[in-house]
Amino acid sequence: MERRPARIDALAPGLRRRLIPPDPRRVDLREAERIVAGGRGIAGPEGIALLQELADLLGAALGASRVAVDLGWLPWERQIGQSGRSVAPRLYLACGISGASQHLAGIRGAGTIIAVNTDRSAPIFSVAHLGVVGDWREVVTALLERLAARGEARGLSR
Length: 158
Ligand SMILES: Cc1cc2nc3c(=O)[nH]c(=O)nc-3n(C[C@H](O)[C@H](O)[C@H](O)COP(=O)(O)OP(=O)(O)OC[C@H]3O[C@@H](n4cnc5c(N)ncnc54)[C@H](O)[C@@H]3O)c2cc1C
Prior knowledge:
This protein has helices spanning 8-11, 45-58, 66-70, 101-104, 136-157; strands at 34-38, 61-64, 91-95, 112-117, 130-133. It is α/β, with parallel strands linked by helices. It has one domain: TPP-binding domain (Rossmann fold). The protein has a five-stranded parallel β-sheet. Helix 2 (45-58) runs parallel beside helix 5 (136-157). The longest helix is centred in the C-terminal third of the chain and has 22 residues, at 136-157. The termini are far apart. It binds flavin-adenine dinucleotide.
């Protein structure tokens, strides 16, 4: 029997192809286009819930430092770094992560890195393209409000 590769447009003329992006909550971190990550500074599971809210609005996957994983806030497959995943998102937002060398080893392939940390001398700022010295909760809450307002404005203008 002769085998020939089938072309979808030959089988169904006029059919328009559309790539369906993977669900950011389930995507393998190595494939994620955007990642919102939390470290010890987010201080617990409530912090993870707030980060998840932001991640959902940005269509981002949630990642973590090893400490956050060791403390049980997120499962191992969400760990980024030398002993976790090496990632290459277009956007990496690090909240309450100091930027230890073992963590930075996992984000070498990242495009734009944004870091939020209360300690202006945190090593994460040495690799960040945009750094915010401040409390991650205040920054994320302000971002959520802005994104919600934009969403509402879009809804009103429809
Ligand atoms: C062999 C080996 C392998 C390792 N592999 C990995 C790995 O794969 N991945 C990894 O991440 N680590 C790894 N580590 C651990 C690494 O050395 C660090 O201990 C870890 O990355 C630190 O995690 P962290 O940044 O969450 O915590 P910390 O270093 O404790 O940093 C917490 C940060 O949060 C900031 N902060 C506190 N409160 C706030 C606030 N309200 N708002 C904003 N910022 C705040 C602090 O200023 C601080 O910078 C490895 C270590 C070893 C020895």
